[in-house]
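pinned: reference chain
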Amino acid sequence: MVLLDTVTAVEHFLDVFVGVYTLAIFLYVLTSWIQLPYSLRPVQRFLDDVCEPYIRLWRRILPTAGPIDLSPMVAVIALVAADRIAVAILERLH
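pinned: its structure tokens
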């Protein structure tokens, strides 16, 4: 019974983490398009610090598509796919 609760908790944590990180990537992209007021610049720096290392990984792998940066979209798709794979593996433990 304890193992089932632990597996369920890990699944829930993964779902919440992926949801929050996806939202952070979305906000990172939005804040890169607009000029934020000075009072919100720390938020923009925080999003840059949190999201840029992961997105930079995908920028190195993907070929350039001109002025369009597809790396955030690929990063989110890969994150969700990894979450689904991890949850499927954890479901087998039930």
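why pinned: The chain has three helices and no strands. The mean pLDDT is 91.
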